[in-house]
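Box 3.1 — From sequence to structure: Golgi-specific brefeldin A-resistance guanine nucleotide exchange factor 1
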Amino acid sequence: MAPSNALCIVQSEISLLSTALRCHTRIVFRGHQDELRSPLYKSFLQLKSILNGVSSLNEIEPLVYLTPFLEVIRSEDTTGPITGLALTAVDKFLSYGLLELPDPDYADASLSGPGSRKSVAMAAEAIADSGTQARFVGTERSSDEVVLMKVLHLLRTLLLVPAGSLVSDRVVREILQSCFRICFEPKLSELLRRTAELCLASIIQLFFSRLPSLIATSLYQQQIETGMKFGESSSAIDESSVHTTVETNTVCTLSWQSDHTGVAVDQEPKTATVEAKPHPGPVPLNSLCTTSVLNGHLSTEDLSDEITALSPEPNPSTPSCHTQETALDDGSDKQGPSNDETCLRSSIKLFLKFRSPTIVFVHLEKLIFTTIDDFNGGLKIIESVTALDTSIAQPRPYGLPAVHDLLHYLISLLTPERNADGIISVSLGLVTIALETGADAISNCPSLLQLVQGDLTKHLLLLLYSDRVWQFAATLRVCFMLFESMRKHLKLQMEVYLQRLTAICSPDNESTSYERREVALDSVVRLFLVPGLATELYVNYDCDPYCSNLFEDIAKMLAKNAYPVDRLMGTHLLALDALLAVLNTIGTQCVTMTPSGTRESSDLNNSRGTTDALRHVRTRLNRHPTDKSRLPSREQLTAAKETKKILILGSEQFNSKPKRGIEFLQHYRVLHSPLDPTELAHFLRENPRLDKRMIGEYLSDRKNGEVLGAYVRQFNFKGVQIDEALRVYLEAFRLPGEAPLIQRIMEHFAEHWYYANNEPFADVDSAFTLAYAILMLNTDQHNPNSKKQNAPMTASDFRKNLSGMNGTGDFDPKLLDAIYRNIHKNEIVMPSEQTGLVRENYLWKCLLRRAATNQADFIHVQTGALDPELFDIIWGPTVSALSFIFDKTLDPAVQIKAVDGFIRCAAIAAHHGMSDVLDNLVISLCKFTTLLTLGENPSTLSVSLGRNNKALLALRLVFALSANHADILRYGWHSLLDCLLQLFRASLLPDELVEAEDFVSPSRRVRLTTRGCAPVIDAKSRGGKGRGNAAGGSNREVSVFSSFYQYLTTGSAWTGSNDEDDADEEDLHDQYYEQSRQPQCSSANRGVPDSVGASVEWPGRRLEQFSASYWASIGSAATSGSQLDDASATRVAVDTVAQCAIAQLIKDTKFLVDASLIELIKVNPII
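Predicted structure (token representation):
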């Protein structure tokens, strides 16, 4: 919206610039007549006169008040400061909204006149032309660069304001050209080059944020061209919609060599010339967009896939832009639209509802329909003309061609062997912005998606070999944005990327620096944090017979990286974070939904701590749409995994002996028996694991003639020149060395190519002769031994050798010359056996060929769809890594992270009923408690335990996990009861477990010791009597706990003097008798599981104690346990054992399921 004082703003700028022109040192004003001799000054005087006669700026055309300023910008006689004033003035006009788009509801919005869309578009074009053709007299270098900076700001402002949406593709290319030339000119200052880079970043952000609207505009144009009726579909569309720009120009490449564009400064050195790789040809307009972006508003059932819309560049001498409309012919000609202007506009109104608020407008001045008969019949373009206003040609607004050119040029700058590091760095940053703002829209545009699938991913994969850490990190950032948003279309490219990333992160790769490995591991962490990605890796790669086991390989790599050799470093923690990221994704599904819709644990409704903790659990869903109907069942995935294993084993046997490998696959029914030649040919053609030399040997065998014929038919040679077809054919396998075998293979090739190309020669033998001659020419031109013996053939020699070989005639000389040039320049080799760029290009060609088949189908999977399968793969490496890091680290924060991983593993195992996982965890944690150490003296056990913070943490954790998930505990009971025995010998068990009522005893209570049962001394008389005397004076009366005593003492791991043991035990008990009587947790703190798979408490009240609050509860002893005296260390051990709630665990064993209870009973045969 233009300000109300717009007229005053323009008048003030005129006054300022006129003053500057008068003071120009080159213009000496001695009188009024001399002043009028300056055309620039005269134009401002005329503009003053015009503005004095109007009351509002809307009464005149924008070009009227802009032209004097633009002439100053283009003038070669003005100095830099004056040109800068003009640039600042025009930039201010644009920023203040003086050049505003008309109201779309205005009836004459598209017609000519002040404030019309046409006048605004022409003014925007004029501003752009002036900015890209700015000229001024150079003075000081710094001052000149200030002017260039103002030029950049003007061009940026022009495109960012709403009126900038009306500039043409030509203007966009010239603006981009100017920005790129300044950005890449090394002679300019760093500040100016970075300013140009920022302008490019803003422009790219604008273009790709508008991409949904541009795609919809292109689709809308297609529907106009195909003659679709919009009256019916637009009736349900909001009437407040606006017209949409119709565009028919083809995709053109950026040309950076125009003499009339760019920014030039007098006395400045010539800037470098940057050329963009030309596009192979025009892209059909119907490939520029898809229909998914319109959310079903438009029907495209009648769109033709064979139409290529072409439009010449705008010519001022010709009428305005044209639009071609195509209609389907159903037997009778259909009439064009009505000449009535109102009906015409209402018939093509469209409401575009996208994230981008930008609206592109339709120019309705002229619609041209031409009659063309489609060769398939039925499709015609009907000619009709509706002319509303053709007096002035309106520039056609830019569209998808401009965006395509920009992305194509940015990708060309990523070529490592052609561009410097600085240029690659700038391009990586700009491509990142493009993907951040328009990645989802690119997926809906086939022409842009083709660039991404081809050159972009190829260059990015090559940049992964860069040794420069900053460039490597920037490449990974682009790859992350690319595969996070478009992995559905980049399945095979993503496989190569993750394989290279795994190789870089591998600890066995000594060539990778620590910095690069750290950056790569961080990228893996970010990938695993993407919702659903881990599951998608498993489904699309691990269960695909011809893809690698990506998820499994990455899990193993991360486990290796988590093992510290000398000391704990950042890479070890990053690998652990990646493993925990997968656990976090799986763990969020271990919380069920209550009928009310709130998340709660299924068996812990009474635990307030658990409920509070679960409120913070959030499941991040896959943002991409998922189709459950496409997701295979668990049985199908399991069968696919088994088939894949058989295929891998069969391929290995085939590579050693083909016949044995085929028999192996037939035995497991992967291949039919008897052998189907077509099935086997498909297997040989599609399996990338097969050795190409063994394929050649098998096909050349005379017994396998049917298979060879079926294999040749796998190639599509229609329309392919014979030498190129032969090149593709011989790249699929290695040709054997014997002449008879070569002849057999070449005969099948010649026959298939001959009939696929409509018999171009006299007979099949002629095709065979020419194909064999090509092989001989390849050897003659590129074999070193052949060159030593004879001089290489020339083109005339090649033609002479084939004289009369086409039946009784000759081959076409032009064909022979073309074949000779191709073979002479490009040798037919086995690229897979080469190294360097030849091998890379060949492998990439094979990847693109596979990407064109159904092998590239990618399935999006929702989070939690296959959690048991993922956990079954990852729990082993994860538990090993957690145990190793927990054992090696002394950092409390790292220990807490490891404990959190243990808790998550246990919760997931309990949720899915995986008892072996929990058993493994319990056994590992029992080792960390140091209670299972042989030879430990019970008298010193409590002291050593109290001083070992890690052992205390493991002790609390193992009993908390056992209490929460006791139902699925099996062999873990053995290690758990061994720990209880050691605690009993060290007199660390609570009184509730070692004391009981006994009516025979004088004190009515007895205490279980290693020497038997002893009466408990009353606390009041304890001060006057030693506990040892009371015990010694007793007759060791056997109570009802005698049998339990025998059970506990049987299998003692410690051997020593019983007398010393008894004396030490009595002293310890006297000293800490009162401290050991700690209150126990009530049964309400632990949920009673109903069944295996439902007993889930994650994280639970007890498990919450292993957060940062744990260290606060321990106090100073947690950080300096080794400095405690014996009494304090023992007190810490007693407190920790009391917090383990062992008595409650024993009581709750009566609620165990049968399988767990049976394993508990089996621990000791005496019971």
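Summary of the box: The two ends are 90 Å apart (CA to CA).
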